[in-house]
Write a structure and sequence with these properties.
heterodimer; A: mainly alpha; ABC transporter involved in vitamin B12 uptake, BtuC; two-stranded antiparallel ribbon; B: alpha/beta; Rossmann fold; 10 strands; globular
Chain lengths: 295, 239
Amino acid sequence: MEYVISVLLSGISVGGQYALIAIGYTLVYGILRLINFAHGDVFMVAGLMGIYLTSSLPIGISLPLVILLTVALGFTIERAAYKPLRDAPRMSVMISAIGVSYLLQNTATYVTGGQPMTYPTIPFLSDTVNVAGTQTKWVVIITPFLVLALVVALTILIDRTKIGMAMRAVSKDFETSRLMGIRINGVISVTFVIGSALAAIGSILFFTNYPAITPTAGAMPGLKAFVAAVFGGIGSIPGAVLGAFLIGICETIIKGLPSAWDVSVFSDAFTFALLIVILVFKPQGLFGEAATDKV
Amino acid sequence: MSEEVLQITDLYVSYGGIEAVRGINFNVRAGEIVTLIGANGAGKSSTLRAISGLVKPAGGNVTFEGEDITGKDPTMIVSKGLMMVPEGRRIFPNLTVLENLKIGAYLRNDDLEKDIETVYGYFPRLKERSWQEGGTLSGGEQQMLAVGRALMGKPKLLMMDEPSLGLAPIVVQGIFEIIRRIHEAGTTVLLIEQNANMALHVADRAYVIENGKIAIEGTGRELLENEKVRAAYLGSAGK
């Protein structure tokens, strides 16, 4: 029983971390119809910045700085690599995104020498706590609540504020949005800022639990978050969050099965297979466009 | 009459080498309804798109209230008081009716309540559907919403691109009735129409565009009686 609880807890926690990345994918897709392949690498860079900054600055300064610098990175990537291609075919922008992804990975290899770096122990988050008889880190307990709070805040921003209304308008119709006086590029930048900030928070939570960072450390979580976004219906925030939690729980359960069954190495394959089966029955994903547009 | 609000001088618009507008000159004076009529592809919409900043003109000038706004970005042009009702309505289907109205006032920071009530006064149907998503409205209701949305920007000049397109005759009548009322309330209107008959009846002055150039101009009444206009656009020659 205690074992089941601990597996579930860590599943929910990983899922929450995927969710923070998945929101970045789904937000950007919702507005630009772009799969931002560099997003997972932005997440990895946020992790590396966490290592370098915490080694020289106190936590109270370095962690906010990680978020701030990741936001600056996301903003710059959009302005430098995507904005000049605004009128180009979508495939060109996607290739630009792949280019940025490798640029970030290669830069990370250059800076770290390709060696796995160890994420610092962050006070409180890394401390252990006793829940229902199992030992776990605080980060595992905190993640789902933090994710939920951030999602609620984001939903309020999108549903209730002027900039959120502009985001929804731009996601449907660039040209008419411009006729309303909305600055499209400003709105797009805001989505990248939000996505990057969430990825930075996600990186702090994720790497506290999985402390080794290599230049490709963003690839797998990024890919899973992307799949979560597709599974939830790309463009939909609740969909991405739900999809991420599902993937996280699923893979942790499979990893946690008795070792005699010898399935834990296949956890990723099983998780993806399950998603394929679900997508066969719901091709638009859980909250995909086609379903919601029906009137 | 009074001063010119909009002055178009020798305007050229081209898309990938094809000239859609080839040296157009016209103006709109304060308080007028001016209409541009013409067949499909004559260059009417391209002219409006150039005025609103969606496309950069290949040549010529757009002057609004004495200020050169040629090739400026739409945000700046909207902020000057130039709002457009785009062709095909283009309401935001995922925003509620009320949000669609609010987004028309995107650049305003003052209180919107009074103007929302004014728009609901013009279109009581929209008030009933205030919380519905725009995409659930009928074509006629969407056109009302598109007009209401533009009015929320408190335009000095309201530009309308084919507001009657694809609507039932009775709905078209309603839309033109509203254009008249908006005009009476003091808004200057630049109207683009294929429905020449309706447009000429409501307009103070009119221009006929053919092949990207002004072919005929005059008051609405003059054009209604013009033989060429009657033959080509009113389908009632000799009546």
